[in-house]
Design goal:
With about 80 residues, the protein is mainly α. It has one domain (about 1-60). It is about 65% helix and about 0% strand. It comes from Sphingomonas prati. This is Putative negative regulator of RcsB-dependent stress response.
Amino acid sequence: MKKLVQVLCVVLIGAAVIFGFRWYRYVAFADSPYDEVGIALNGKMPGALRSWGCHKLQARFTGQLPPYGCAATDGRSWM
């Protein structure tokens, strides 16, 4: 049982690192704010991280419409 818990912890930590890196790569280095995987990962992040990611994207892509999850209620301005 102890070995199973250890393997589960390793798998969960590994998944968190992989998805976290992929999300950060989208927010910090993507060529476009409309990357489908990046938008999905950003939408799954906790509120504070999602907000930080949206502000980072807004700073990088100032003249473009916000991606899904970063738009205000009108859908055309950044949150």
